[in-house]
Amino acid sequence: MARWEPDARERLVRAALDLFAEQGYDNTTVAQIAERAGLTKSTFFRHFPDKREVLAAGQDALCQLFEGGIAAAPASATPLEAVAAGLDAAAEAFTPERRDLGRKMQATIAASSELQERDTLKRVGLAAAITDALKIRGVPDPTASLAAEIGILALRTAHARWSDPTNRQELAVLARQSLHELQTASAALS
Amino acid sequence: MARWEPDARERLVRAALDLFAEQGYDNTTVAQIAERAGLTKSTFFRHFPDKREVLAAGQDALCQLFEGGIAAAPASATPLEAVAAGLDAAAEAFTPERRDLGRKMQATIAASSELQERDTLKRVGLAAAITDALKIRGVPDPTASLAAEIGILALRTAHARWSDPTNRQELAVLARQSLHELQTASAALS
Questions:
Q1: How many Cβ pairs closer than 8 A exist between chain A and B?
Q2: Which of A70, A167, B17, B163 has its CB surrounded by the most CB atoms within 10 Å?
Q3: Single pTM value for the model
Q4: How far does A126 lie from chain B, in Å, by closest CA?
C-alpha cells in the first residue's frame, strides 16, 4: 500500500503543470505526471479521475470559499459588500507560493480550446453559485445576478493581474481594487 | 439535383424541434428530421453540419444583429444606450411566429447537459462580441465588459418572458423593460 503523502495533491498539480508547459497537455500522460511528482499512478488516481481534473484543482474549493464569505457577511451588508466578503474569502486560495501555478495553469488552458471551454463553464458555474448565495441573503433578481457578474469580473481581472510576474500585490488587494473599478464603471454606464 | 426550397431552413428547424420534443434529442436522426420536413437528407446537410447545429440556428445571426445595433448607435450614446440599440436590433430575430420555436428550443436544451453547455458557451461568446463592439466605440474596460453582461442578462430575462405562452409582448419591449430593471438594480448594489 502507498504510504501517506501529505503534499501529494499539490506535488501532482505542480508536476502536471510543468509537463503541460514543457511538452503540451495532449502529449502528457498520467504516468509521466506521477513519475515527475515522485509518486505512483495509483496515488494520482486517488486524487484525480484524469489529467483534465488537475486543471480544475481548487475550483470547487474556490466556489465554496466564495459562498462561505458571502454567507458570513454581516446582515447589514449591501449586495456588493457581500460580494466583497466573498472575494476576500476566495482570495485565501491564492497564496503567494501558488502564484506561478496560476500562471502555468492559464498558459495551459489558453493553448487548448477544449480546456478553455471547460474553464468558461466553471466560471459560469461560479456565477450561478454566487447568485444563489446572494438570493439566500434575500437579494432579489436581477440584483443578485448582476452583483454575481460583477464579482466574477472582479475576480478575473484581479487574477490576471496577480498572475502577472511583475505584480507583487496580494490577490485580496487586487480584487478589492477591481471591485472598486467596477463600481466606478457602473456609475458611467448610463 | 434538389430544387430550390426557399423556406427549407426554417422547415428543418421546426421539424427537428418537434421531433426532439416528441421523442428526445438523442433518439432523433437527421433522416427523420428531413422526412418530417418533407425534404431530403442532402438538403439538411446543405443547411446544417449535424442535428446539434439546428439548435444553434440563428445564434450567429443574433450576434451579428446585436453588434450591428451597437455600431449604428449615435456617437453620443452612453454604453447602456448602445447596448439598448443592440437589443433593439437583436429583437428583430424574435418574430411572433418564432415564439413557439424559442419555447421548444429551450425545452430541448434544458433536457440535455451537453446542449446546456453548448448554449452557455454561445452565450459567453455573445458577451465577448458585445464587449468588443463597445470597445470599438471607445468604451474602456471594465465598463465595456460590465455593459455587455448587463445586455446578456437583459436578453436572457426578456427571452424567458417572451417564451412564456401567457406573455404576448414583443421581445424588444421586454428587453427594454429588463434593461431598465437592471439599471434600477445597479443603483441598489452598494
A1: 78
A2: A70
A3: 0.87
A4: 13
C-alpha cell at B170: 414583443
Of A180, A21, A52, nearest in space to A115 by CA: A52
Whose grid coordinates read 510543468? A18
**Cβ–Cβ < 8 Å for A84, A179:** yes
C-alpha cell of B105? 428550443
Half-sphere exposure for B120 (CA within 13 Å, toward CB) = 20
A contacts of B189 (beta carbons < 8 Å): 78-80, 143, 146-147, 150, 183, 186
| Cα distance between residue A114 and residue A145, in whole Å | 27
**pLDDT tens digit sequence for A23-60:** 999 999 999 999 999 999 999 999 999 998 888 877 88
Task: Please determine, for residue A165, whether its predicted confidence score (pLDDT) is greater than 50.
Answer: yes
Q: What is this model's ipTM?
A: 0.85
Pick from A121, A145, A182: CB nearest B117: A121
Is the bond leading into B142 cis (omega within 30 degrees of zero)?
Answer: yes
Chain A positions touching B143 (Cβ under 8 A) are 185, 188-189
Cell of B98: 418564432
| Cα dihedral B149, B155, B158, B164 sign | negative
Q: In 3D, which of B60, B59, B63, B56 has the Cα closest to residue B132?
A: B63
* Res. A3 pLDDT band, cuts 50 70 90: low
A18 contacts A102 by C-beta, under 8 angstroms = no
Of A78, A149, A190, the CB nearest to B183: A190
